[in-house]
Amino acid sequence: MRARRRVSAVRFLNSSPLVWGFLHGPQRGIFDVHFSLPSECAEELRTGESDIGLVPAIELASQRDLMVLPGCSVACRGAVRSILFFSRKPIEEVESIAADTGSRTSVVLAQIWLARKFGLRPSVRPYPPKLDEMLELADAALIIGDAALHLDPGLPEWRGRPLFVHDLGAEWVEMTGLPMVFAVWAVKNPAADPDDPAVFQASAAYGFAHIDEIVKGEGVERGYPAEVAHRYLTENISYAFGAAEQSSLEYFLKAAADLGLAPSMTEPRYLETVAADQNS
Questions:
Q1: What is the average pLDDT value for the chain, to the nearest integer?
Q2: DSSP the chain
């Protein structure tokens, strides 16, 4: 009997709808699911600790044996609310960033945005998501995920002075006209199964049908007001992975390569394409 394949999911609130079916719905028991930070999900795929993972988009450039499962992603089509860039100087004067490196994609996103829009190449220093301490070390701070959701981007201050705040989801959409794809389901080549896309889409569909349950069970439990969690999951985050998201992913990876932030690659590999080629 074949052992259940291991799935590494992100432990942020935004991934909850994608795995709700695996945890509570008809897809429960199909996979052995565990939770990690986005960067850890990528490393677990690299080392073989996981067979399938919700990985930062940038990881596709360095792990060439990964194939993207189409249909689902963690993306946005405007303000994402959970990728926040705080600076204590006007953006044109930023020379250093303290970055929460829990998501490699968000760090690269910030660098692409700064380089293409402002011609800046600031130094980047990894640091835990503690805003006050980050701004002691650098001109700006990048905070992501649940830590960002706990911050109020409306009226932030540091040492009594207002901060400059940028939502990097909104900045990307304004700069490119495309959605921003932060993470995708990816599978190691030997573990690929042509039925995987349908199974993962079914788990997500179950999650979307139980958003109120997720808000109560995950959002409020993490300390968010119900309305904040509901708005985040239904308005800020997009879970689609269609033609626009695919174009954005390819644009993002090329931009990263052009700036020397990732290895060059032709384009991501998609499981349904590989499966079709194998069956032809």
A1: 91
A2: -PPPPEEEEE-SGGGHHHHHHHHHSTTTTSSEEEEE-HHHHHHHHHHTS-SEEEEEGGGGGT-TTEEEEEEEEEEESS--SSEEEEESS-GGG--EEEE-TT-HHHHHHHHHHHHHHH----EEEE--S-HHHHHHHSSEEEEEHHHHHTS-SSS-EETTEEPEEEEHHHHHHHHHSS-EEEEEEEEEGGG--TTHHHHHHHHHHHHHTTHHHHIIIIIGGGT--HHHHHHIIIII-B---SHHHHHHHHHHHHHHHHTTSS---S---BHHHHHHHHH-
The single residue listed with the structure tokens 């963690």 is 74
pLDDT for 278 beyond 80: no
Length of the chain: 280
The bridge status of strand 157-158 relative to strand 140-144 is unpaired
pLDDT digits (tens, 9 = 90+) for 215-263: 999 988 889 889 999 999 999 999 999 999 999 999 999 999 999 999 9
Percent of the chain with pLDDT over 90: 74
What 117-125 contacts at long range (C-beta under 8 Å, 24+ apart), as own/partner pairs, is 117/171, 117/175, 118/91, 118/92, 120/91, 120/92, 120/94, 120/95, 122/94, 122/95, 122/96, 122/97, 123/95, 123/96, 123/97, 124/96, 124/97, 124/99, 125/96, 125/97, 125/98, 125/99
Q: Give pLDDT, residue 155.
A: 66
